[in-house]
Amino acid sequence: MSDSLASFDPTNNSAIREELTRYRPRRSQRYSSVNILLMLWKDDDIGVAPEVAKLANFFRDCGFLVWPYHIPSIDSQSKLHLKVAQFVDLYSNDADALMIVYYSGHGGKTLDNMSSECTWAAKRVGGPTVDWSNIQPTFVGARCDVLILLDCCFAGQAARPHLSNTVELLTATDKDQFTPTGKIAGRPSFTAVLMEQLALALQKSGSILVSELHHRMQAKECQLVKQPFYTKFAESQTGAGIRLARWVPMDGCYAAPNQSPDQAASFYLRVSLFQPLSPEKRTPLLRWMTKDSPANIEHIELVQQSLSDAKAIGRLGNQVLEQGDAQMQSTEATISSRTREEANRLIEALDASLKLPESCQFEPLDVSHVVESIGKRSRDLLAFLKDNLATIGKERLDDIRGQELPNFQDLRSRIEMRLFLIHDEVPMGPTKVYFDLPVPLEQRRAVGKAAEETVLVEYWCYDASDHSITKLATQAARVSALISEKKDEAFRILPGLGYIQETVRQRFGFIYQLPEGIGSQDIYTLAEIIPKVKYVPLEVRKRLASAICQAVLHLHSIGWYHKEIKSANIIIFRRLVPSESDATVDTYYDMENPYVVGFDCSRPSEAETWASEDHSGVKGNLYRHPDRWGKPDRFERQHDIYALGILLLELGSWKLLPGMDGSGKGFENVKKPLKLRDTMLAIADAPRLAHSNGSEYSEAIKFCLSDQNWGEFEPWEAQKIVREKVLQAVSEGENDHCKHST
User: I want to staple 171 with a disulfide (CB 3.0 to 4.6 A). Which of 150, 211, 347, 631 is the partner?
Assistant: First the structure.
């Protein structure tokens, strides 16, 4: 093995590594962009416009760029041809992109009954027409993949052979067939079933092949009176096929770190070539390993690069140890002896796994064990480093940041955030936000405009008599700047755009960028959703719980305490085109993408508390650790974990905390915090919670709420314990994934 790897051209090694790394996020989200041309007649006599508008919103909700086009009744053929040519010219140059072409309206044969061509018509009888056979070649000649969706009669007539990039055709019917318009009850249209089945597939699995979508639409339950038609034109019929998934930009998002592969779902393959790999021959090989790989391949890993990455992680570990036990400056931390011992243990284990036998001949199981051992030990050390960022000195973090870390973007991002968290300078001043109406003082959140962006402003008030205005403004600027830092999606924090300050009303506001299409009526807190929605599937609640747990672990890894974790500070957006129009149904909301807000009290772990907190009355204390009632102790990690436990209890019971009081008084009569905690532990220990969520979920809640002697744990120990006792317990079928993802 070692001789073979050493003889491989390093230029090829680098090119393959970079392409596999670049493409990895596309394994599930296949395309760099998705552009859709929606075509319908300006003067049709069916009335398809409302359904097409609904489809357009659905695709926008998926993150696709939608371009509606109404085919004019005058000079139809030439104007449509021009529009199509412009569309293809603009959006087909990127080979990693996807174009979707959709048409809804009349379809039929040409006047020549012997011809197999297909025409589109604005009206059932008479009216303008276009010859689709003259339009289709423009699309199939594109450099990128193309999906053609036709909801019209005789749609199968459009099938034509093609011999370059992947082009797939999914239509309402085969040739010589009519299709329903969806105007009659019990006879849904092709478009309606397409939306329904695609939405269900994306909600359940996150993505779906067009061929699989076609299969789902053929089910009897879909009630299509005509079977949809599917065909694929491609250079290789064994290619991966077009996979549809919700699209999100890759900027600021990173692929999940390498996980230990399931033995039943992985194997090791050695590729031998007839001749040395030249740059010209490398291109088709790279395509075979990326876009043309089968759709069920999650990742292809270059073993030699795994060794290089493991060695790089080992070097980082040694650099951290070099910090030593010398007294650091006031802004820096020291490494404890226990942390040093654990680091040495992990580094030695990794070094041992990297000492490969001299022989280049391995039995299959030996190869598997060697690669998996290296991967596991490097992941263990990397997780340890991430969990210790708050204990590593500023100078050492600066040194690590200055190194080339192309395969550790999440680590680099966390280092950047940690450095910003402890940096003395605050580069950001107030920002101007415009609102349609004045925002009342009692209103916590409002939607406005900042630099043409739709933004969410989250207000918090202050008492000028208790704090220096300059100090408050500095802290607000620091937190808002930290929120604005580029970060991993797992932090579950909306992109920050600064803050505003209102001196008359004595309040600040953090500004968040909202996703495209989201307005003031589309934003809900978890505290608002729980009483409104009666039933939510267990797997949805567990994914929601897992996302929130990971967010807390990510915050703590850089030494950032939230201090106000509760259901009122978790926001969830309405789906732009929900499966249901009823706001009391869970599919109305995008439960898989919660966001954490309420950072007005958050701070670095080593900083003093700076914002005003309400510690009076039970209502303000329900989520708080008993040590934080009355005259509170200094905020520590365990106080966030306690609040997380209360939130998990609400998700498991699907009931807000006040509603769990059997007396119906919302615990308002409780004066002793320890008594309230005992009540919460009793609810978590009740058989009903374990019955509906599983015993591990119940144990996770009890762990969060119980005393754990947190002061005895090092930061990395606390992170590891929470990951094992809480995150893995609440995650639905994702235990292996969660072990090293935080």
Answer: 150
